[in-house]
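Table S2 (continued). Query chain:
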Amino acid sequence: MPGSVTSAVSYHLDPTLAAAELAQTLQNNHVGFVLFFCSADYDLPALAAALNHALDGIPLAGCTTAGEITDRGYDQRCITAIGFDNRWFAVEGVLLTELEEVSLSMAQEQVSQLLERCRVRQVAPIKGHSFALTLLDGLSVREEQVLAALGAALGSVPQFGGSAADRLDQGQATHVFFNGHFHTDAAVLLLFNTRCDFKVFSSHHLVPTSEKLVVTEASDEGRDVKELNAMPAADLYGQIIHKRPELMDPAIFALNPLAVRLGDQSYVRAIRHVNPDRSLSFFAAVETGVVLTRMRRGDMRQHLLQMLQQIEREVGPPQLIIGCDCILRRLEAEVTGVLPQLSQLLQRFRVVGFNTYGEHYSGVHINQTFTGVAIGQIPND
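Corresponding output:
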């Protein structure tokens, strides 16, 4: 029986050819919405025009990535997309701009409108049959504020997502796509209402140690940590991982993560780079006074397999899993040599998605996780 979601991928870097190839797979009488993730190597204005033309009349949303997840597993320099059948999915979205102005009242108004627009489509009851996806400019430094407002406004509606990315060695501009154009300093909120079973999830394979570091000085926005334990942050971090600051790179950060402990949960705060003043820049906010716990790496492949098997037990064999996977997880997999095994698992469980500059889950900005939604089979009724 045909599914309610269809995935496609193109490796053409020519935008016209890429968009045409996606449309050939996705375009049919019942596709009501397309979600895509694209390499930052594309000429984005040209890609926007090509997608709008090839998928004329079909609403689109997406973002740039630090790597793609396709039907081959981990991939790169391509565009992957998902089409949603309008008989089984009502998908409504909104673009949020000027992220520093996003407030709870604004979020409540937008969520209320999206819920009503889904409700009139009469695909499924709203309660228990809806989830939200957020995509956000990964260099905006606004995730915490925006996600807190959206999470509060969504209430019991499960929410996940990822921060748009680019090539990690560039870090120049990350984009979200909505209303026919790519945008910076913006976020996309999508509400999915469906008759299919689904499971929103977030997980990581990292285990806390007893080693603690106190943030004794951080920048106002919390992305730059100047001091740990009253020492230059890069110097102390270097001491505990036995690396000089000038030798640190994203792979080193991926292998030596730090996290904030809240109750019995650990929320990784991934390091982005070392600054000339020996401060550390993070992908997520880390405030003065926060205690960071050094984490050790568990078995990445075994953890992913167990999590995907548990999801399968809950929703059955998934039609598709939309995955938001931190770029530092991918780097860790490359350095430790398990990337091919992880790709096999992603392929086996039908994961499509992207490598992020941070993940979103229940209104919280997190790092170094695999976060997403598993969509079950079409019900028999």
